[in-house]
Design brief:
The complex is a heterodimer of chains A (427) and B (615). With 427 residues, chain A is an alpha+beta fold. Chain A has 3 domains: 143 residues, D-amino Acid Aminotransferase, Chain A, domain 1 (2-Layer Sandwich); 82 residues, D-amino Acid Aminotransferase, Chain A, domain 1 (2-Layer Sandwich); 177 residues, Succinyl-CoA synthetase domains (Rossmann fold). In chain A, 34% of the residues lie in helices and 26% in strands. In chain A, strand 8 and strand 9 form a beta hairpin. The relative contact order of chain A is 0.09. Chain B is of the alpha/beta class and 615 residues long. In chain B, strand 5, helix 3 and strand 6 form a beta-alpha-beta unit. Classes of the chains: A alpha+beta (427), B alpha/beta (615). At the A-B interface, strand 14, helix 8, strand 16 and helix 13 of A face helix 4, helix 5 and helix 6 of B.
């Protein structure tokens, strides 16, 4: 999936190793870092990292979310005992954090511990990528929400085909103390940014300790598709799931099926009490079906988002369908209203439609009485190789299991079954 | 070629990679478009050269495989398109190499997972050189009636139904390739058809953008209206809005950005494409649809009206006289592939090959119906397997043991016998295992080791004709035929061959009857009286006991004769002795013996002074 967030720990670890190498040992970067996970033995940790006992420390969660200070999740200038006590208290705690994009709930599981660095100046430094250029952002007003002081930010655009080692940084920087060291440092960082396939790298704030640059807060993303060429550079880098992305049992089951096959199976539950359920072939089509439910004003009734594609076996489509049907038919609508199942899809390229329908039909047959109990109505739309036979099999199934089932082919617009179903819902 | 055209009817292309199915689909498309020549001139496959066979309609044609881009471009300098099927790992290098040639102008990159930085470098390089890259992570696209990229547009049935065999008036570009068939279908049903369709690929930085292709369509006078399908994430759709605003795009455009459902989904839902993720408000589908609507682009209220907007726009253009609907024709039929026809039960064919002893086409291969796992679990052993594969019978345990005993007894008989000697000589001449083994095996015949069959045949003749042993010996003598299986160089009546004794004892203990053995022994009584080494030898004993065994296993006389005729009894000798021959080969290899040369003093040179003159 290309751009993937990595832990602050991994980002700093990569840089601490790469900076002396790239700069010919001229520049250094703090490599005193520890990542604490639920498995870490906190009491034994200082044996491996003696500096934990010698220095004042900073502790913060390391789980791909920012605004840790504002969310009271930052512990500064403490000794190891205090750090240990705080981590023990926070570990496995359920929290809700406020970010610019909204609130997210999740469990705290990973903490970064590093030396506390007393400082006065706080700068801002970031590297981002656009289509035709990389952009280096620098501001002397770091340590705050950078959007609020955007006027102070200097931007240096580096065209994609430029040589990273020959970029002129110095002339763009404001006239500050350490300007020479800073521009050297930025240049080396930029070379690493390119060479290590970073897609985002932000230090806010970053400061100086004498001539050495010290990043206080780091956010980084790597392009995970570059793993095949970066295995050695990256070492054991982890791509954690975004914070708060916990799965239901059924979502986890589908994800586990997905991992085991070359085909694609996705399921996200939105509203288990919703009355519109989707069972859609193809990534693109599945988005459009969900879109249309939302655009026609029934987002609140949309129960799930998901897709199956890449020619899954009959067994897999059967398992997938069963999982959706099970969720759908657990409890009938409290008001006794019908539920709607959209078995949709565009015109397949090479997938044999009749074949993929076999697994779906088997599951529907098995759930006959539950579907009846839940007053389920089914709408089918699909095209592609062998679609006529597939649609005919569906039609016969409807008669066999005595469920209202409407069948449409490529002559009908792909999302027509959505409006057909929603006309029923609004009745 | 015009700068806005990437593909025409005359486009010649390379396929990079061994994607023969994709190449065949391109050729089928060409044929359906009634073109005179295929669009694919060569496949570039570094692993091997030569050629590949394809169908052009019903005719078979050869298309060369070339091992490098350099050779390909020098052989086909007019080919300006490369469909690049190279993997994620090498897609970048291959595309870069193609962009650096003089002749290749457009590269389509199919691979998913090309790193973003590499994509951006490819995009910038192409731009610098005035070339085009479509993709990565795309199925490609199609220029109706002219050229099809790889697997784009699906099956020939799809292509026929969406009328892609002839150009219409609509230019289409989308992010997703998966939905392009659906879009071609929508366009075919609501307009006079597609002119050109491209899927740019779902990565964050596709090498050519939606706008890049729309600007091409804008310049193309054959394209009268444009249809576009965008996606949440990124800001490319704003470039389109700006191009409309500043007059770079003027043709009617119907456009929809998918992903409006993102707002009801939990933040972390992952859509299929790498680029399909809205990080900030302006990247959402709603914001983009609004921005497009604002500049006058036709944006439906949901995908459900998409086709209606397309139809309305088309009808308006027809009414205005801008579009004269494209004419249709019946495209030529593309013959169904044999495999598919078989699968659908439409054709049948006689087989040219038959096997009744084993079948490896199922999930577990079997020997005469016994699955291989059962062969092992039930200890069939070599004897049992011989029963299954040679006799097509599940033979009893004592019969298996007899076969194995025979194999062990005849596995070797020293380095001096002709077969082993030959093997050793070949091994010492530096020949490989199979040559040395075969060199030994080739000596097996009527004089060496081949007497098993002959013995069975001779004794059966006497036995069946109920000849008294004395009369049998007499008849053979009269015919001047040596009785096969009688006589040994060393062993005598008084000093019997241990191997023969072992077999006789086993047969007496386990066989119900040993009729032919008994007959052979009665013959032996006659012959050994003449000379005490004229005894039933190993070959003879095997031969007669095999017949006794088969009779016991209820094989008919005819079946037994067939087996003898096919040399089946000699097979036991060949199989067993191969063990010994290979042993001698390995022995010589280990010893690193040098080339064998027969000592001169062991050769009598009796050559005339001059040859006799004749004629």
């Amino acid at each position: 999936m290309a751009q993937k967030g990595i832990r602050e720990y991994d980002a700093k670890r990569l840089l601490a190793k790469a900076i002396p190498e790239i700069s010919g040992n001229k520049l250094r970067f703090n490599d005193e870092l520890v990542l604490v996970s639920p498995e870490t033995d906190l009491a034994a940790l200082p044996n491996e990292h003696p500096w934990l006992k010698d220095q004042r420390l900073v502790v913060k969660p390391d789980q791909l979310f920012g605004k840790r200070g504002k969310n009271n999740l930052l512990l500064i200038n403490v000794d190891y005992d205090q750090a240990q006590a705080w981590i023990t208290k926070q570990m496995n705690r359920q929290i809700t954090i406020k970010q610019t994009t909204g609130e997210t709930s999740g469990t705290l599981t990973h903490f970064l511990v590093e030396p506390f660095v007393p400082h006065d100046k706080e700068y801002y430094l970031a590297f981002t990528s656009e289509r035709e250029a990389d952009v280096i952002h620098f501001s002397t007003k770091g340590g705050v929400d950078i959007e609020e002081v955007w006027d102070s930010v200097v931007t240096i655009r580096v065209p994609v085909l430029a040589d990273p080692a020959k970029v002129d940084i110095a002339s763009h920087l404001p006239d500050i103390a350490n300007q020479g060291a800073l521009s050297e440092f930025i240049k080396v960082l930029y070379q690493i940014y390119c060479d290590f396939h970073f897609t985002y790298l932000e230090f806010n704030p970053i400061t100086f300790l004498g001539e050495t640059i010290v990043p206080l807060d780091t956010v980084a993303k790597l392009d995970d598709t570059a793993a095949f060429q970066c295995a050695k550079k990256w070492g054991e880098v982890e791509f954690p799931k975004p914070f708060g992305g916990s799965n239901t049992k059924e979502e986890a089951y589908i994800a586990s099926l997905d991992e085991k096959t070359g085909a694609s199976l996705k399921l996200t539950m939105l509203n288990p009490n919703g009355r519109v359920w989707t069972l859609v072939a193809g990534g693109g089509a599945s988005v459009i079906y969900a879109d249309t439910v939302v655009d026609l004003g029934f987002g609140n009734e949309l129960a799930n988002y998901g897709e199956y594609s890449g020619n899954p076996t009959t067994e897999l489509t059967y398992e997938y369908t069963k999982t959706v049907l099970d969720l759908m038919t657990r409890t009938p609508d409290p008001h006794g209203r019908p539920k709607y199942l959209l078995i949709g899809g565009g015109i397949a390229n090479f997938t044999d439609v009749a074949k993929t329908f076999t697994g779906i039909i088997r599951a529907l047959e098995q759930y006959k009485s539950k579907l009846q109990e839940n007053r389920v109505q089914i709408y089918v739309r699909r095209g592609g190789p062998n679609y006529k036979e597939g649609l005919e099999n569906m039609r016969k199934l409807g008669e066999r299991i005595e469920i209202p089932l409407e069948v449409y082919g490529p002559e009908t617009h792909m999302t027509r079954i959505v409006s057909l179903a929603l006309e029923e819902v609004s009745r | 070629m015009k700068d806005y055209e990437l593909f025409t009817e005359d486009t010649k292309a390379f396929i990079y990679g061994g994607q023969t199915a994709a190449a065949q689909r391109m050729l089928d498309f060409d044929f359906m478009c009634r073109k005179d020549e295929p669009s694919v001139v060569a496949m570039i496959t570094p692993e091997r050269g030569g050629f590949e066979l394809f169908f052009w309609g019903t005719k078979e044609i050869r298309i060369p495989r070339i091992t490098s881009i350099t050779q390909a471009t020098s052989r086909y300098p007019t080919a300006d398109v490369m469909v690049n099927f190279a993997s994620q790992r090498s897609a970048y290098d291959v595309t870069m190499e193609a962009l650096n040639t003089d002749s290749i102008r457009t590269v389509i990159v199919i691979a998913e997972g090309v790193p973003e930085r590499q994509e951006r470098i490819l995009a910038a390089t192409a731009k610098e050189k005035g070339k085009w890259v479509i993709g990565p992570a795309t199925v490609g696209g199609v220029k109706a009636g002219a050229f099809k990229i790889g697997n784009a547009a699906g099956t020939m049935q799809n292509i026929r139904e969406a009328k892609l065999y002839r150009p219409g008036s609509v230019g289409f570009v989308s992010v997703s390739g998966g939905l392009s068939n659906e879009a071609y279908n929508v366009i075919a049903r609501n307009t006079d058809g597609l002119n050109e369709g491209v899927a740019i690929g779902g990565d964050a930085f596709p090498c050519s953008t939606l706008l890049d292709h729309l600007l091409r369509y804008e310049k193309n006078p054959d394209i009268k209206m444009m249809v576009c399908l965008g996606e949440l994430g990124g800001t490319a759709e704003y470039d389109i809005a700006n191009a409309v605003k500043d007059g770079r795009l003027t043709k009617p455009l119907v456009m929809w950005v998918t992903g409006t459902c993102a707002k009801v989904l939990p933040g972390q839902v992952q859509f299929g494409h790498a680029g399909a993720k809205a990080e900030i408000a302006i990247e959402t589908a709603d914001a983009k649809n609004d921005a497009l609507r604002k500049v006058g682009i036709t944006v439906p209220s949901s995908f459900d009206d998409y086709h209606e907007k397309i139809e309305q726009t088309y009808i308006k253009l027809c009414d205005q006289g801008v579009i004269t609907p494209a004419e249709d024709f019946m495209p030529p039929n593309i013959p169904m592939d044999y495999k598919q026809a078989i699968a659908e039960g439409l054709v049948r064919k006689r087989t040219g090959f038959i096997s009744t002893i084993c079948d490896e086409s199922g999930e577990v291969h079997n020997y005469c119906g016994v699955p291989i796992d059962e062969v092992i679990e039930k200890n069939y052993g070599i004897g049992g397997v011989i029963g299954l594969l040679w006799f097509k019978k599940d033979i009893p345990v004592y019969a298996r043991q007899f076969m194995e005993m025979v194999l062990q007894i005849i596995a070797d008989h020293g380095p001096a016998v002709s077969g082993a000697h030959n093997t050793i000589v070949a091994a010492r001449a530096g020949k490989d295992l199979i040559s040395s083994l075969v060199s030994g095996l080739l000596t097996i015949g009527p004089r060496f080791g081949g007497a098993v069959n002959g013995a069975a045949e001779h004794f059966l003749f006497g036995f069946r004709n109920k000849l008294m042993s004395r009369d049998f010996v007499g008849q053979m003598k009269a015919k001047n035929v040596r009785i096969q299986g009688i006589g040994h160089r060393l062993h005598t009546v008084e000093n019997p061959d241990k191997r023969v004794e072992l077999m006789k004892n086993f047969a007496r203990a386990h066989f119900e009857k040993t009729d032919l053995l008994d007959y052979a022994l009665s013959v032996e009584q006659v012959t050994s009286q003449k000379k005490n080494n004229l005894i039933l030898n190993v070959d003879g004993c095997i031969g007669v006991l095999c017949v006794d065994l088969l009779r016991e296993l209820k094989f008919t006389d005819t079946e037994i004769d067939e087996m003898i005729d096919a040399g089946l009894f000699n097979a036991l000798f060949i199989l067993g002795r191969s063990i010994g021959f290979m042993g001698h080969y390995f022995d010589q290899r280990r010893l690193q013996t040098g080339l064998y040369r027969h000592p001169l003093d062991d050769i009598l040179y009796d050559v005339p002074d001059r040859p006799e003159k004749v004629g």
